[in-house]
Amino acid sequence: xxxxxxxxxxxxxxxxxxxxxxxxxxxxxxxxxxxxxxxxxxxxxxxxxxxxxxxxxxxxxxxxxxxxxxxxxxxxxxxxxxxxxxxxxxxxxxxxxxxxxxxxxxxxxxxxxxxxxxxxxxxxxxxxxxxxxxxxxxxxxxxxxxxxxxxxxxxxxxxxxxx
Length: 163
Description:
The protein is of the alpha+beta class. The protein has helices at residues 3-14, 20-27, 31-43, 81-88, 114-125; strands at 64-72, 93-98, 105-111, 131-138, 144-145, 148-149. Strands 2-3-1-4 form a four-stranded antiparallel β-sheet. The protein has a two-stranded antiparallel ribbon with strand order 5-6. The longest helix has 13 residues, at 31-43.
C-alpha cells in the first residue's frame, strides 16, 4: 500500500466524517485522487465500515459487555478458522480475535443484562465441540477505546502542602 493511501487511512481513522475535499486539502492532493483511493480501498475491503464510537455510560441504554477467553482445539487443515466463524456469526458477538498465550480466542459479546451474557456462554459458546474451556470477564467501565478517552479528569489545582 502506498504512502498516499496510508495517509488517507490515518485521517479517516481520526475522523471518519472528513470529506474527500477536506482530505485532499490536508494532503495537498486532488479531490478526485482522494475519492478514487477511498473507493478502491472500500472495494478491496481495506476500509470495511465507518462507525461512531459511543460512550454508552452517557446513554440510558443499559448493556453488559464481556470479554471471554476461549481455549479450543484447532481443526486439522483449518486451524481455528471454522471455530472462529461459528462464534462470530452469533449476533451477540462483537469481536473475535486469535490470540497467543494461555488461551486461543478472545470473544467480545454484548447483552441486555448479565443473565443474557451468561446464557450465551453456557448455552451457545461452551457447547461448541472444539471449545475446551471459557473464562468470562465483565467490563465495568470503559476509560478509553480505540484511542478515544471517554472521561476527562480535571487536574487537581490544590497547592501542595508538605510537612
